[in-house]
Amino acid sequence: MSRVYTPRYQQNLKPAMRLAPGRVAVVLSLLGALLLALLARAIYLQVVQQDFLQNQGDARFRRSLLLEANRGEITDRNGEPLAISTPVQSIWASPVDMDLRTVPAAKLQQLARLLEMPLDEVMHKLSDNKREFVYLKRQISPALAQQVMALEIPGIAKQQEFRRYYPAGEMLAHVVGFTGVDGKGQEGFELTREKMLAGRHGSRTVLKDRRGHIVEDLAVIEPPRDGQTLQLSIDKRIQYLAYRELKAAMDVNKAKAGGVVVLDARTGEVLALANTPSYNPNNRAVLEPEMRRNRAVVDMFEPGSTMKPFPIAMALDAGKVTPDTVFDTQTYRIGPATVRDTHPKPAMTVTQIIQKSSNVGASKMAAMFSPEDMWTFYRQAGFGQSPQTGFPGESAGRLRDWQNWRPIEQATMSFGYGVSVSLLQLARAYTVFTNGGALLPVSFTRLASPLPGKGLIKPESAKKMRDMMVSVTEEGGTAVRAQVLGYRVGGKSGTARKLVGGAYAANKHIGLFVGFAPATAPRLIVAIMIDEPGAGSYYGGAVAGPAFSNIMAGSLRIMGVEPDAPSNNTLIPEHQISEVREET
To answer: Which member of 90, 233, 305, 357 is catalytic?
Structure first.
């Protein structure tokens, strides 16, 4: 028989230590079961729970970063910046990725100090471990953001944003408007042209580690599309002049508020629009509702005698009168009501009715037409309807349906009571006289070419009206203080009592002047309104006329417009002015 070889190490084993075949089978079975369990668990996690686990991983480490588009600039007609975006930084945190127990207290205190926030507020924001994103401080300087990041607190990050800056400040606040902290327009053209200016943001999907560092780009970067530049019709030089003179008129007359509009008489473009009081859009810490009101666009008021040229132009264009037609201008009655002039004269020509601002004369010319005809003419002149400039909150004014007019109401509407307008509407209506009888559309954006106007009166009628309206600023007129050296100026002053609680207040007025120059071939229209002057005088020629003169004179020089007055033309000295006060 052959002998079975037994290894030496087995020869030395005691019988109790040798593995029985049954035990080997048990061990192998347990190992196999464990392997099957692990395999089953892997299949469960990779197949059944794949979406859940993927979402949990993405929630912790996958981030979609906003690539902010640059907001478009707003410029004046000459390319001067009126609204620009400057880069700033915002500090944010991801509380779910933070363990405040590992952050030294000194660093948290330093973070609160840099951000100028109470420590309790910082801790409150960082302790909400259910939030993935929270702003700590927005729109801080890049230098300050760099100091914050130097603290190297896990879960604290920065992102670039843009803050809007307005170089023109308060003088253009009501036109340009402003944006909120999120970069969206809140007022003015920042609001109305939001889509154009904002552009489209891009995005970038990345994988971050627990310290907030970007590890990998996970998707194709979608680049941002910057906003477009908006070029306004405003001339910053004229705007500065208009705002300065309006503020000066407010101070001199101790007025409550005021507004001014400067139009290009040939195109209808708004070259300047200002209001007082105003505000600084770069610092809105104290911003009262009264400061935000764009009075020239949204406020309605009864225009007083500045309406008289329209019924007169209607009668002139219809061939019912000439500049030399004489009217009986003595006080008369319409039913129980009386129509009178403060300084009555027995008779006046049509030219004198404009120059002396006669209520009686204007009402008698209005009486030559039916209420429907007069309503239609006013409507075609832009009253009672929005100017359609796209400006937020622009007023349509108020022009009641002609079927509800009483005879006395038709008379009062001829001299500016019973109809309400905005200053922008009033300025636009005067383009009928400066543009060959056609009413021009108003534009706040620079035009490549003038838009066509809508004919209202014949060109020869418009010229006759301009010649008659020049008499208003000449000796004996109601607005001698509106003269401009070297230029023939036409226009109309107005004074209106204010409605307070449904009744006309005896001591609250609006002083107005709307005019154009040079009268031979008008280039500019300036409309100015002084609300509740309190320094004594309240008549339009006295309170609005001087500001008009300064604005018109400076603007004509800026534009390089040649004088049209005779070479021996001189201004009437202040002490020699015998200005007629327009009727109220």
So the answer is: 305
